[in-house]
Amino acid sequence: MRKKSFSKISYLLLATLFMWIKTYIVYKTSFDIKIENFTQEFILFINPISFLLLIFGVGLFMKEKNRNRYIFGASIFVTGLLLANMVFYRFFNDFLTIPVLFQTSNMGDLGSSISGLFLPTDLLMFVDIAVLFWLLKKPTFKSSSQLTRKERSAYFLLVAAVFFFNLGLAETERPQLLTRSFDREMLVKNISVFNFHIYDVILQSKTSAQRALADSNSLTEIENYVNANRKEPSQDLNGIAEGRNVILLSLESLQNFVINEKLNGQEITPFLNDLIKESYYFENFYHQTGQGKTSDSEFIVDNSLYPLGRGAVYFTNSSNEYTASPEILKDYGYYSSIFHANNKSFWNRDIMYETLGYDRFYDVNDYEVTEENSVGWGLKDIDFMEQTVQHIDELPQPFYTRLITLTNHFPFELGEEDKMIEEFDSNSKTLNQYIPTVRYMDEAVKHFFDKLKQTDVYENSIIILYGDHYGISENHNVAMEKFLGKEITPFETIQLQRVPFIVHIPGVTDKNPQTFSKVAGQIDIRPTIMSLLGIDTSEQIQFGTDVFSDDKLSFTVLRDGSFITENNVYTRGVCYDKATGEETDLAVCDPYMEKAKQELNYSDEIIYGDLLRFYGKEAEAEDAEQKTSTTESK
Ligand code: GP9
Ligand code: MN
Fold first, then answer.
1. Residues 396-408: tens digit of each pLDDT
2. Is the confidence at residue 630, as pLDDT, over 80?
3. Which ligand is nearest to the CA of 293?
4. 111 — alpha (psi -120 to 50), left (phi > 0) or beta?
5. Fewer Cβ atoms within 10 Å of its own Cβ: the N or the C terminal residue of the chain?
């Protein structure tokens, strides 16, 4: 743009500059945003620009008279937004989202103390506003003429370029940033606090629209399907663990291929291998997660519903009605909790756990985390287990709880002192390092059992261990081929989605351990737990089956539509024979193709339409709510 053009927008540029600097200062002083390298700092620094140029740029469509006034007003609005986030962050250590604004229980905590959350220094937020106000009337900043169409186009082209440059850089730092929507902190860090709000609004309106279109009739067909496919629970094991505590160990990135496997003569998972000899173990058990990774596995385990094909349900549908395990178990006197030494807002857990009915979430703030006891993503698993058992010992019993490990997470970092096995030797650093971190996690699980056995909790619990999702992606196929000593075909890729599933019932499984080869998946975990506890779930809408049931179909469907049956694997339109790993006639897989699709679709319909609000106890509440709103509107 020429000099003349610049002078036309000098007020706009100044307002942008002020707000940009102010936002960056707020980032550095009011939010706790972890920066790991220079690129991340650079992204953080530039990320407010595109939004600010855009919002102020709207003024360019206005008459000269109104333009600067609009920009001034927008500055106040943006400052207010920033300030609201600052104040909210002071209390909740988190950024504002629309569901949070409407989550009255959260706001209730803030209550009358809201004024107390403002600090005198907050007034500094308005220094630039005062300057802008003073300049508003100055002739130098009064633009005399309208921007030409060309100039305007150039301006918005520039805004788009800045935005895509920012997004591109962010994507290289965090692939699938927007589709996976990991964490608010990560989004703010990469696309700015402002664009994060826009993203949040889009996400919210999408879910609200789908919800608004659904009604209770949408559920009938699904109910019929679920009822027709319901299986009787196991004859022998139903109620065998009645009244016991339930402890779930969500083992990060643990795949089956390391179980009972050795590297250079050394077992990779010696403890789990021994534990299996005292437990029920399923060797054909699959994870069913999508982009929501750990959070998806949690969702499946608590609800026996499938996660979504796109995005993380923990983010997209966190204000739905669910009848999750904590809620069901509450009626049987159970206290529910989660242990995970990470930032509570990661995967939107803090919000979602409330929705699911958890009584308590022990997050990173409940742990003693130091430089020495941390690696990679945070607190090392052994220290995590050590501290968690102390908390568990104090939980009201009976309880339902889940421990989520962290050390065996990409990029699989580990200090030399914790390496109990050599790295693998291949072209993939990821797979090479995976071996020692898995070995370390195995040690952490051993530590957990050792410590738990010293309490009286152990004998009165059932302990269920499972891998949350794959750890080694297809990008490492060459290295995996070297490790497994065979070619990785699409068939093998599906078989690599097997994760360990171990059910350990002290006093029961140690006397009669068993390895099962029937096909099952994470979707079956909840019905299995309920059956072991002797709790009837025949009224629940769930897609899984008690794995011990004699009628359990040897079938499971993965989130991408692939499925596995007793003898076949179906993926990417091809049917494989499990015995040979070779392609076989599609007709063999055909009977299950419809079922696989239908289950995923029904589950999606439930989530997108928030259909469980029309079911059981929730339906009564919904009815009552509708009645009051119709009387009010009369
Ligand atoms: C983060 C941990 C890892 O809290 O659960 O998440 P993932 O990347 O595996 O989904
Ligand atoms: Mn995970």
1. 999 999 999 999 9
2. no
3. 1
4. left
5. C
Q: Sort residue 573 into left (φ over 0), alpha (ψ -120 to 50) or beta.
A: left
The set of residues, in sequence order, having a beta carbon less than 8 Å from that of 19 and lying 6+ positions away, is 48, 52, 75, 78, 79, 128
**Model confidence at 102: pLDDT above 70:** no
Among 157-161, 244-248, 571-575, whose mean pLDDT is lowest?
571-575
Place of tokens 């399907």: 225
User: Which pLDDT tens digit goes with each residue over 239-259?
Assistant: 999 999 999 999 999 999 999
Considering only CA atoms, which of 549, 553, 543, 556 is closest in space to residue 604?
A: 543
Ligand 1 nearest-atom number relative to CA 349: 4
Residue 363 Cα to chain centre, angstroms? 15
118 Cα: distance to centroid of ligand 1 (angstroms): 34
The band of 438, judged by pLDDT with boundaries at 50, 70 and 90, is very high
Which residues, 6+ apart, have CB-to-CB distance to 83 below 8 Å? 122, 125
CATH number corresponding to 234-552: 3.40.720.10
Query: Which region, left, alpha or beta, applies to residue 552 given φ > 0 means left and ψ of -120 to 50 means alpha?
Result: beta
Question: How many helices and strands (H and E) does the chain possess?
Answer: 24, 19
Give one DSSP letter per residue of 523-560, joined into a string.
GGHHHHHHHHTT---TTS--S---TT-TT--SEEE-TT
With 70 as the cut, is the pLDDT of residue 589 above it? yes
Decide if 218 contacts 609 (C-beta within 8 A). yes
**Residue written as token pair 């009369």:** 634
Element (H, E) at 583: strand 583-584
CA of 306 to the centre of ligand 1 (A): 18
Angle between helices 64-92 and 127-136 (to 10 degrees): 170
The H-assigned helical ranges of 47-110 are: 48-57, 64-92, 98-102, 104-110
Tell how strand 285-286 and strand 335-339 pair up: unpaired
**Phi, psi (5° rounding) for residue 378?**
150, -145
Q: Which residues pair with 463 in a beta bridge?
A: 247, 504
Tokens coding 372: 């020495």
Task: Tell which atom from ligand 1 comes closest to the C-alpha of 296.
Answer: 10
Q: Which part of the chain is CATH 3.40.720.10?
A: 234-552
Report whether residue 404 contacts ligand 1, using a CB cutoff of 6 Å: yes
